Amino acid sequence: MSAQLQRDEPELNASDAFLERFVALHPKEIDLSLGRVEALLAKLGHPERALPPTIQIAGTNGKGSTTAFLRAMLEAAGKRVHVYTSPHLVRFHERIRLGADGGGVFVDEDRLVETFREVEAANAGEPITLFEITTAAALLLFARTPADVLLLEVGLGGRYDATNVTPSAVASVITPVSLDHQKFLGENLTAIAYEKAGILRSLTPGVIARQDGEALASIEREAARVGAPLAIGGQDWQAREERGRLVFEDGDGLLDLPLPRLVGRHQIDNAGAAIAALRAVPALGVDAAAIEKGLGSVNWPGRMQRLAHGRLAAMLPEGSELWVDGGHNPDGGRAVAATLAELDERSPKPIVMVVGMLNTKDSDGFLEAFAGLAGRVYGVPIASSAAARTPQEVAEASERAGLATEVCASIEEALAKAARASGPVAPRVLITGSLYLAGEALAANGTPPH
Q1: Which residues form the Mur ligase central domain (predicted)?
Q2: pLDDT at 1
Q3: Whether 236 and 322 share a structural domain
Q4: Distance linking the first and last C-alpha atoms of the chain
Q5: DSSP SS3 for 419
Q6: The domain containing residue 149 runs over which residues?
Q7: What is the pLDDT of residue 367?
Q8: Do both 71 and 179 map to the same domain?
Q9: Is 318 in the same domain as 225?
């Protein structure tokens, strides 16, 4: 089984066997194009034309959190919400959440296998990437399961991402754009933002989170070209913290709301983008009460998630804190570092980091954000990805950032060392650097997403 799919599951199941076969259908993991997935969807009877009202979400950072806020608020309004996200943390099934009364659920093994069997037969061995064929399977499930809304998160980029095959949407959301995946999307913000803006549609509201000026200019040019009306963060809507509250303001008025349950100041902006999207589509019927309830119930595993219980948490001294965050690029690092600094202001503790990263990511840029903040970094491997940097490579990047570093063979070894090195004040430990590592940590702790 491919390490990038397995994510420490205890044993293979039937869906894993399909995923293994799907990987072999194309020589590249990523090959941005719409032709292959469109051909397969045609053979399946065009399920992309029978979806519930769809909100599509693209961006570099904050996609998952914004999607989580949207789901929580919509479900608080009594809506059945389908959700498509990637990557998964522990099991592939996390990528496909099917809407149901009382809250959505991950697709079960039987339905997933049945759908995989159908798409495999329809594809008939034609070249197609893993993400493309599994996206087709997800769209088939969404089309066949009644729901009120579909939240469709882009996998990579937007313009040529396999999710960008739906003929219509009720809103398009673009979260902050920054440098990441330059090999596929372009070497600068203008090029990357152009690819993200490929999800914008004529006459469909485009909700744009606060952006770097270069990225925003690129998005605005594309919006003008296709005729998409924009609601831009910092211009047409504002989300800010005031006196321990979240204040949202747009042309329709002001909302005075509780702070979101998700930790970190960057979550104010993510919540704001979700609120702006829902207010751009009044027909969805999400009122202020549902927005407030959603802010308090939102859940997004692997993003500044505190592990208060479990096997890994139990390895640390009493009074310690164990956190997990899948941040992996420089902007993500700065957001996580800012959140750690906030926590330290409220309750000072020695900060220890357990870091694993992929060789496709800017390790130096990510780790520089923690200079002067973290007392020690333990470099660890990522067993679930063949593209992982070695612990020594992580340590070298950490040292270049001016951080004290040790090399460890596993998360468990790093936590054991952190426990032995702890002084009179118990540490605050953060496992970070990759969503793959976050998934491994959740699995090892016995607290997978649900």
Answers
A1: 57-277
A2: 37
A3: no
A4: 23
A5: helix
A6: 3-297
A7: 97
A8: yes
A9: no
Q: What is the pLDDT of residue 6?
A: 42
Q: Token pair of 303, please?
A: 């993003």
d(CA 195, CA 160) in angstroms, rounded, equals: 8
For residue 49, the domain's CATH number is: 3.40.1190.10
Asked if residues 95 and 151 have their Cβ atoms less than 8 Å apart, the reply is no
Domain count, the chain: 2
- Segments in the chain below pLDDT 70: 1-12
Task: Note whether 373 and 275 are same-domain residues.
Answer: no
Burial of 319 (0-12, 13-18, 19+ CB in 10 A): exposed
pTM of the model as a whole:
0.92
CB 286 within 8 A of CB 399: no
Q: 223-231: long-range contacts at Cβ-Cβ below 8 A with a sequence spacing of 24 or more?
A: 223/197, 226/200, 226/201, 226/202, 227/202, 227/203, 228/172, 228/200, 228/201, 228/202, 228/203, 228/204, 229/203, 229/204, 229/205, 230/205, 230/206, 231/205, 231/206, 231/207, 231/276, 231/280
94 and 76 fall within a common domain: yes
User: Cα(390)–Cα(358) distance, rounded to whole angstroms?
Assistant: 9
365: amino acid identity, one letter: G
Residues in the chain: 450
SS3 255: strand
Q: Is residue 434 part of a domain?
A: yes
Cα–Cα distance measured from residue 340 to residue 410, given in angstroms and rounded to the nearest whole number:
23
Question: pLDDT value at position 8?
Answer: 42
Per-residue pLDDT, 182: 76
What is the C-alpha to C-alpha distance for residues 27 and 12, in angstroms, rounded to an integer?
23
